[in-house]
Amino acid sequence: MLEEDLEIAVKVVIVGNGAVGKSSMIQRYCKGIFTKDYKKTIGVDFLEKQLNINEDDVRLMLWDTAGQEEFDSLTKSYYRGAQACVLVFSTTDRDSFEAVEKWKSKIEEEVGPNIPIALVQNKIDLLDNAVVEQNEAEGLAKRLKLRFYRTSVKEDLNVEEVFKYLALKHIEKMRKEN
Ligand code: GDP
């Protein structure tokens, strides 16, 4: 097989409580759009994004929960074969922050302990309404040993960085395993 035929495809799952901005993040990253009343696309399992990391072509498949945020209603098939994960909470939703540890355990239980996870505090454009302090979020990320990002999907802040990090992590992991 020719070198250029090689392509790395990565299944990325995005978890976290409802309304923290998961669908918006996928739409922003894959389509470059942000809408306030984004309606969940029914029947579409994932959106794709192609990126190039140090000469490697990586195709990220971003799976949306399609409104199944109720913790236990996410199906096994959502997690099956996941290779990277974005765990999102919102600056303006305390419950979503308190649920982070539970989400992390859930992912690791469903997928295994070695999946790269990025912890994301979204909606940092709404700092005036913040109910989570930056240092406590950083403290949690440190304790849970997760890479931490602060994003605004609305203002397009740091979204690309989250996915670049996960793509890179995935490639590193693949190289180690081979
Ligand atoms: P999901 O349920 O986690 O998929 O959340 P959605 O993507 O449906 O977003 C919930 C609401 O938050 C929508 O009204 C979005 O427009 C809004 N939203 C998402 N990200 C941001 C952000 O970074 N800043 C602000 N101000 N609103 C956001």
Tell the overall outline.
globular
Helix share bin: 25-40%
Strand content: 15-25%
H/E order of the elements? EHEEHEHHEHEH
**Distance between the first and last residues' Cα:** 18 Å
Unreliably modeled segments: none
Mean pLDDT score, rounded?
Answer: 89
Number of helices: 6
Count of β-strands: 6
User: Which value, in Å, is the CA radius of gyration?
Assistant: 16 Å
Side by side, the strands of the main sheet go 2-3-1-4-5-6
Largest sheet descriptor: 6 strands, mixed
Which ions and ligands are bound to the chains?
guanosine-5'-diphosphate
Instruction: Please identify the structural class as seen in this structure.
Output: alpha/beta
Cofactor: Mg(2+)
Enzyme class: hydrolase
Family: Belongs to the small GTPase superfamily. Rab family.
Catalytic activity: GTP + H2O = GDP + phosphate + H(+)
